[in-house]
Amino acid sequence: MTKTNQISLESELASFMGEYERANNSHDIERVVQFIADDATYWFSDGSYRGIEEIRSAIEKTFATILDEVYEIRDVEWPVLGADFAVCRYRFSWTGVIDGESRSGRGRGTNVVVRRDGGWRMLHEHLSS
Questions:
Q1: Average pLDDT over residues 82-110
Q2: Residue 2's pLDDT band (boundaries 50, 70, 90)?
Q3: Is residue 1 pLDDT above 80, yes or no?
Q4: What distance lies between CA 35 and its chain's CA centroid?
Q5: How much is the pLDDT for 7?
Q6: Are strands 36-44 and 119-128 parallel, antiparallel or unpaired?
Q7: What is the DSSP letter of 6?
Q8: Can you spell out the DSSP letters for 14-40?
């Protein structure tokens, strides 16, 4: 892969991650699931979820539990980068209201992203605090 192609791909994927972050901050599950492959696997602190329906339910539970959540992804690195697949690692943080109290958290994330049907989709997400 040429340096120009790598920079272009990194830019495209950075845009994808930014759109994914904005979709999560919309708290609209329909916007979020558009970024996730049907056969994805997500690993969160509270469990593992396989397939879009399990992942949808887990994210909806988070949206219902953490009110007014603001989720931020930063320090994204792409250690694996291909034309149709990529792996990123990053730091994340969130703030919101749980049971009437302001709360926050932070951690690390790893995502496997694949190109499908002309667009990028999350195939795997692993978040840990």
A1: 97
A2: confident
A3: no
A4: 8
A5: 83
A6: parallel
A7: H
A8: HHHHHHHHHHHHHT-HHHHHTTEEEEE
Give the strand pairing for 85-98 and 36-44.
unpaired
* 47-50, strands of its sheet edge to edge: 47-50, 36-44, 119-128, 101-116, 85-98, 67-81
Residue 47's φ and ψ, nearest 5 degrees, are: 155, 180
> In the CATH scheme, what is the code of domain 3-128?
3.10.450.50
- CA–CA separation, 87 and 109 (whole Å): 11
Tell me which residue has tokens 């749980």.
98
The strand pairing partners of 120, in sequence order, are: 115
Place of tokens 């943080």: 93
CB 11 within 8 A of CB 19: no
What is the spatial distance between Cα 81 and Cα 15, in angstroms, rounded to a whole number? Answer: 15
The neighbour count for residue 74, using CB atoms within 10 Å, is 10
pLDDT score recorded for residue 112: 98
